[in-house]
What does this fold into?
Amino acid sequence: MRLTGFLRQRVRNWIRRRQGPDRGPVTLRRGRIYILPTSLGVAFGLMLFAMLLGSLNYANNLGLGLTFLLASLGLVTMQACHRNLETLIVSEAGTESPFAGQEAIFQLAFSNPGRAARCDLEAATTAMAADPVSIAAGGEATVNLRVATRRRGWVLLDRIEITTRFPYGLFRAWAVLHPHRRCLVYPRPADTAPPPPPAPGASGAGAMRRGDDDFAGLKDYHPGDAPRHIAWKAYAKGGELLVKQFSGAAEPVPIFDLAQAPGPDLESRLSVLARWIVDAEARGKTFGLRLPGLEIPPQPGRQQRRRCLAALAEYQTVEPVDA
It folds into this structure.
């Protein structure tokens, strides 16, 4: 097993030196597609060799004809397997950032510029493979590569194999990509967390916003306005997106501070902050974040949630983890 692993790593290093890093869309040309017989293909070859020896020994012309026919079929199968990958275009299609413990999703887009369908294409990382896809002539398909995560920070996807065993599984053709893609993993929100400390009052350092005591009218919608304040009845009548305005006592806007988060260690405190951020965004509240050397001003909305969680994920992180 050690020798097999050593040889496999030597081959991978040789491919990396030969091809270099891949940036942008990659077209799988003939020179970067490798092909070898599978275990089924090896058994098929041994069977043909035995048939050839038997036919020669007994001067059986029918047996020789069948042997050569099956050998020709094997050669055609090898060519078809290789052409199933040739000229295929592979490009990045985005990532989805998870929380620690969930799966990071790297999306790949396959594009088939040829006039023949591409069947049973597989994309795989070192640890996991995606479901096979088939692409019609001139068509496209998206594949999700799922990578398990254990902790927050960056996950690096540095090696992808595109493989096929079409049409009969006698040969395996593959191409290797080195995209050097990264996905940011957010800290896992704490299962249970105490409520955040009260925000400072008007005389404190925190921001203030108007309360929701009395309805004061409608205003035009702007990105970042709380969804719970949208006037859906007015939208149904006139088709114009408006937001309810309220008057009343000013209420403080929370700024979640790492120094105020409880927990025995840094990761526990970051998990508590993540829980506060997720809950505040789910309730449509305005919030900010304060870390040593960084302060994010209060804003509402999904974008603010991503900005704050990304700051937590990158806080005092180490080198990216290879997927």
In short: The chain has two domains: 11-185, 249-322. Residues 201-208 have pLDDT under 50 and may be disordered. The longest strand covers residues 103-111.
